[in-house]
Design brief:
With 254 residues, this protein is of the alpha+beta class. Among the domains are: 94 residues, Winged helix-like DNA-binding domain superfamily/Winged helix DNA-binding domain (Arc Repressor Mutant, subunit A); 73 residues, OB fold (Dihydrolipoamide Acetyltransferase, E2P), CATH 2.40.50.100. Helix content is 35%, strand content 30%. It is built from eight helices and twelve strands. A five-stranded antiparallel beta sheet has the order 5-4-3-6-12. The chain has a five-stranded antiparallel beta sheet with strand order 7-11-8-9-10. Strands 1-2 form a two-stranded antiparallel sheet. The two termini are 21 Å apart. 30% of the residues are buried. It holds the Pfam family TOBE. One of its GO terms (biological process) is molybdate ion transport. GO terms for molecular function: DNA-binding transcription factor activity; molybdenum ion binding.
Length: 254
């Protein structure tokens, strides 16, 4: 199975996060790997979630908690990606030498922008359904999970979306409605079910809730502490998140 184009682009423009794979392989701990990579513990978690969500299968296998902040090791796919990264490192110097001007690199950097959306889920277009001026894009995530995005027909044409097109679904954490498993789903809304992997309390404001999906991808949602307490939701609880198709943005390779 070939490495997705979107993950390959991520390797090229986000070397610090990809290098985290090397540190995990060496340290066997998220806490120690984060320190070696010069990242905060939270940034390391974010990096792992992003890498796992963009890959066809999780790159990092981890266990939450423990004396060292949680054990971690590379999956077979993670080891393969690390080998690719190491080969790209050897080519990087050649690319920099080939650049005629530093402005060339600045231009490429602008063309490959980062996004503030916490959730970036790799998937493929399964179907495009016309809804007047808008289109409903049915996306298939790894392991057969599905979600829908509503975008304008012009956007569908501009992104050249067809069945089989690889995309990234972008969803802001604040757009996810955390609910107890089995809660009533609003007609036409997306609903993904998973298990609360971690709850990060905030000093003032909503908590950050990391939810592990059954396909190995991870969602990050925001929820008020009172809501979590009322619903008796805690780490290891089964939950569902609901969100409108209009809150799903779609990104494609340049």
């Amino acid at each position: 199975m070939s490495l997705p184009t979107l993950l390959t682009q991520h390797i090229v423009r986000r070397p610090q996060r990809i290098a985290l794979l090397q540190h995990i392989a060496e340290q066997g701990s998220i806490t120690r790997a984060a320190k070696s990579a010069g990242l905060s513990y939270k940034a390391a978690w974010d990096a792992i979630d992003e890498l796992n969500n963009l890959a066809q299968s999780p790159l990092v296998e981890r266990s939450v908690g423990g004396k060292g902040g949680g054990g971690a090791k590379l999956s077979a796919e993670g080891e393969r990606v690390l080998r690719l990264y190491q080969r790209l490192q050897a080519l990087q110097a050649q690319v920099l030498e080939a650049a005629e001007d530093t402005s060339d690199l600045d231009l490429l950097s602008r063309l490959m922008l980062r996004t503030s959306a916490r959730n970036q889920l790799h998937g493929k277009v399964r179907a495009v359904e016309s809804q007047g001026c808008n289109d409903l894009i049915v996306l298939e995530l790894p392991e057969g999970l599905q979600l829908q995005a509503q975008i304008t027909h012009d956007s569908t044409l501009r992104l050249e979306l067809l069945p089989g097109t690889e995309v990234v679904a972008l969803i802001k954490a604040g757009w996810l409605d955390v609910q107890a498993a089995g809660a009533q789903v609003t007609t036409g809304h997306n609903c993904l079910r998973g298990t609360i992997e971690q709850i990060l309390d905030a000093e003032d404001g909503p908590c950050e809730v990391r939810i592990a999906l059954p396909n190995g991808q991870t969602l990050c949602a925001l929820a008020e502490p009172l809501l979590l307490k009322t619903l008796e939701l805690k780490e290891s609880s089964t939950v569902q998140v609901q969100f409108s198709p209009s809150h799903v943005l779609i990104g494609t390779p340049l």
